[in-house]
Amino acid sequence: LEEEFASLREFIDDYPYVAMDTEFPGVVITPVGQFYAKDEFNYQQLYCNVNLLKLIQKEGILMENFGELLTTSGLLVNKRITWITFHSCFDFAYLIKAILLEKLPEDENDFFLYHKKLFPTSYDIKMLLRQPAPSTAKLTGGLQEIANQLDVQRIGKRHQAGSDSLLTAQTFFKLRELFFADNWSQVSAEIQCQMFGIKTSASNASLLDTAI
């Protein structure tokens, strides 16, 4: 593990893109209580499930060791590093949990603060698909379906984190090439640090801009 992170530290100057996917058990708990907005419910569902469950692993590494090495890798708190994801709220939640070595914060504002601090440049393909050009092209479905519509070929098996991460990267670059060649600066500013599945409200966004 240490050797792999040493390699990553050497690569990041020349290859500043990180595509990320995790495999997790899904949603097994539904929060109970009074919620004033769907966004509040969605975060509490995320909070309960991620704090209870673990990523799916067969043998492998200790998440404590992974989180510690990731923290000192140069990949975090680095605006030059672009994180690419697909439907990313649970992926980032598990990653933040590993980095913090503790449970996720109960307050969603704190979670958004951690996310923007640790991953200041991140893009979720599902947020890209909401833009007018991909919507007009009627790109729909999950990662594999979107990749198929864009003629992006998978390497490896479906629902394996490595294969899904590579497919996520290839799909992102194909989308950017086909639909955002002329307006990427504008679009990227609109969706930066937005995670599909939980919504950063206007008040949260203002708080983040002030705090970071």
TrEMBL record:
<keyword id="KW-0805">Transcription regulation</keyword>
<dbReference type="GO" id="GO:0003723">
    <property type="term" value="F:RNA binding"/>
</dbReference>
<keyword id="KW-0540">Nuclease</keyword>
<dbReference type="GO" id="GO:0005634">
    <property type="term" value="C:nucleus"/>
</dbReference>
<dbReference type="Pfam" id="PF04857">
    <property type="entry name" value="CAF1"/>
</dbReference>
<comment type="similarity">
    <text>Belongs to the CAF1 family.</text>
</comment>
<keyword id="KW-0804">Transcription</keyword>
<dbReference type="GO" id="GO:0004535">
    <property type="term" value="F:poly(A)-specific ribonuclease activity"/>
</dbReference>
<protein>
    <recommendedName>
        <fullName>poly(A)-specific ribonuclease</fullName>
        <ecNumber>3.1.13.4</ecNumber>
    </recommendedName>
</protein>
<dbReference type="GO" id="GO:0046872">
    <property type="term" value="F:metal ion binding"/>
</dbReference>
<keyword id="KW-0963">Cytoplasm</keyword>
<keyword id="KW-0269">Exonuclease</keyword>
<dbReference type="InterPro" id="IPR012337">
    <property type="entry name" value="RNaseH-like_sf"/>
</dbReference>
<dbReference type="InterPro" id="IPR039637">
    <property type="entry name" value="CNOT7/CNOT8/Pop2"/>
</dbReference>
<dbReference type="GO" id="GO:0005737">
    <property type="term" value="C:cytoplasm"/>
</dbReference>
<dbReference type="GO" id="GO:0030014">
    <property type="term" value="C:CCR4-NOT complex"/>
</dbReference>
<dbReference type="InterPro" id="IPR036397">
    <property type="entry name" value="RNaseH_sf"/>
</dbReference>
<keyword id="KW-0539">Nucleus</keyword>
<dbReference type="InterPro" id="IPR006941">
    <property type="entry name" value="RNase_CAF1"/>
</dbReference>
<keyword id="KW-0479">Metal-binding</keyword>
<keyword id="KW-0378">Hydrolase</keyword>
<keyword id="KW-0694">RNA-binding</keyword>
